[in-house]
Amino acid sequence: MQFQRLSLTPLNHKEFRLFLFTRVFYTMALRMVVTVIGYELFQITHDSFSIGLAGLSEFIPVFSLALYAGHVIDRSDKRSLYLKSIISYALCIAALIVLTTPAIQHQLTAKTAALLFYVVIFFSGIIRAFAGPTSNAIIAQLVPRDSLRFAASLSSTSYLTASILGHASAGFLIAGIGVNKTFYVIFFLVAMAALVVSRIGRKPVVHNNLTAKAWESVKEGLSFVFKSKILLGAISLDLFAVLFGGATALIPEFADRILQVGPVGFGWLNAAMDIGSAITIVSITFFPLLRRQGYKLLFAVAFFGICIITFGFSKIYLLSFGALLLAGMVDGVSVVVRSTVLQLTTPDEMRGRVSAVNSMFINSSNELGQFESGFTYRLLGGAVPAVVFGGCMTLVVAVITWFKAPTLRKFEY
């Protein structure tokens, strides 16, 4: 009971509560956009490779700007930067509203419509390069350091809860009111996120060398991560698991052609992994991993690969949903271990840069994994071999890491 009370202490701080509300609204919007665009692109092109190209469109700016974004974040008021990012994202949603208006759609060919989607996604990737690391870096300025571990878990829980609601509700909304009106709902969520974060006070800049040039500042962040073998190992392992195990990119095809379910079933499949991760993270918040976290992390990644392989072969909706649910549950272990290591090992003055390196490795790997899925889909001739290949590669990465990274395997915090 004492530990359970401690795990909720960050909620005693008003600004952290506001941050959680912002995170829920904004993350719901992000996940709904991913789901709706994936669905719409497949309906327009009838080709999963187009979804892979959408991932590449977002990966390029996220990866290219990540390190520079970290430099900017550490030299900026994080609250103001986060607010500007959310407002900028609202403009991207407004563009998607216009693009999916029936009158506009009728005037566009499938190729032109897909290309315009890629352009909007590219600009949203620029915004995400700054918004993602900022949301991680600001936590340390909202709660005392002795509450950081619990704040990280609550932040992850709110993120995954919002992901579930975003993925699942997008499917229901597509079925009920259509793609265009769904983007109006998303715009409302982004506006709410901007309104809530505006109530958080401005934050002081804690960078210890404001006169440092951008490249020198970036090198400091990279150097810190590469010298921290545990942090580097956890990030790298998660990167390859996400890169090769990105089965969610091909869910539109599985839902439409293999499992033959409508938008609602598609939405639930999209939400399955997030539901599983949320179950794990909530459980770990109250019943933490007390020992051998590195050992459990490696087993979790290996089991993740097995779940992805199962999803690839499945032709039964409930089995497919269950495989993704279990994949999300074990992925939750990775999320908790990595986010805890990130928060506990990073000095305050470097949080923006280290979060940006983490974003470059992890967040951009989601988009690159989406492209990898689309590429292997085209290369191997179908969604099933592409997903099975990704699951097998994830399993191989876990086995190699077990033997090549004993420090990570034996890691405890």
Describe this structure in words.
The chain contains 16 helices and no strands. It has one domain (8-201, 212-409): Up-down Bundle (Growth Hormone, Chain: A), CATH 1.20.1250. Helix 7 (148-197) packs across helix 13 (317-345). Residues 1-6 have low confidence and may be disordered. It is an all-alpha fold and 413 residues long.
Descriptive key words:
413 residues; mainly alpha; Growth Hormone, Chain: A; 16 helices; 81% helix; 0% strand; disordered N terminus
In the CATH hierarchy, what is the architecture at level 2?
Answer: Up-down Bundle
According to CATH, the homologous superfamily is MFS general substrate transporter like domains
Report strand %: under 5%
> Might you state the CATH topology name?
Growth Hormone, Chain: A
User: Residue-averaged pLDDT, rounded?
Assistant: 81
Low-confidence stretches: 1-6
- Structural class by helix and strand composition: mainly alpha
The amount of helix comes to over 70%
Number of domains: 1
Give the N-terminus to C-terminus distance in angstroms.
21 Å
What is the H-and-E element order? HHHHHHHHHHHHHHHH
Largest sheet: none
Number of helices: 16
Return the CATH class: Mainly Alpha
Radius of gyration over alpha carbons?
Answer: 20 Å
**SS elements, strand count:** 0
The shape is globular
